[in-house]
Fold this protein.
Amino acid sequence: MQSVLRNMLVGAVFLTAPLTAQAQDTLADVQQDLAVLSVELQKLKRELSTTGASDVTVSGDVLQRVNLIESELARVTAKTEELEHRVVTVAEDGANRLGDLQFRVCEMEPGCDLATIGQTTTLGGESGVPAAPSAPVAGSGTDSLPFEGELAVSEEEDFRSAKDALDEGDFQRAADLFANFRESYPMGPLEPAALVGEGRALEGMGDTREAARRYLDAYSGFPDSQSAPEALWRLGTKLGELGSVQEACVTLAEVPQRYGDSDYVDRAAESRDTFSCQ
């Protein structure tokens, strides 16, 4: 199984390596062009410089060359920024794929502890792009949602419809609505909450295994979200119900370690007592 993990991770790296290498080679070419153009521009500027008073007018041909090179520099600079964005995007996408593979393989590995798998680092290190600050809460409608920020009206309404169905005990409809919501608003700010909601709906339908998968996706994909503590707690309880009591105990023990200020710390402790965790 270790060889399976190694082969899958190596395969994932190879998926992203050609794109990253190609982008880096292109960046190197662009940087070389920039250097050449900068030197040429400096030469022309020296031609325009004088050592004293002179009645000679600089020819329009030279000025035209300067303007042309400056225009080319602007174009190449814009291209460099575009390529930099592509490199960052490829690196982040590769890291997400690796993280997903790690958790999926861990599910198949005997004795693998899901709770101890950390968040995958972006390929190549930190991207250097600061996270955008969350927007202030708009109006009074979003204060009860597990997200602090502005949402599209349709996005909020669709989420509330799914949540209402769950609260009413209409589990099949709730599961369908949450699944449709995630398809309509992929990787949106309410994605982790929708995963937890869908898991709860599946749990109500008696599908414990699929519910556990939704909780795992919510926790592993969004460990810093407001829904992460609940997802980790529910994942632990489902593991116990599926017969993986040892893994359940370890997972539940991670709730106070990772989310000490969460309301789910006490629930995790109660669940550990239920499974007679040491």
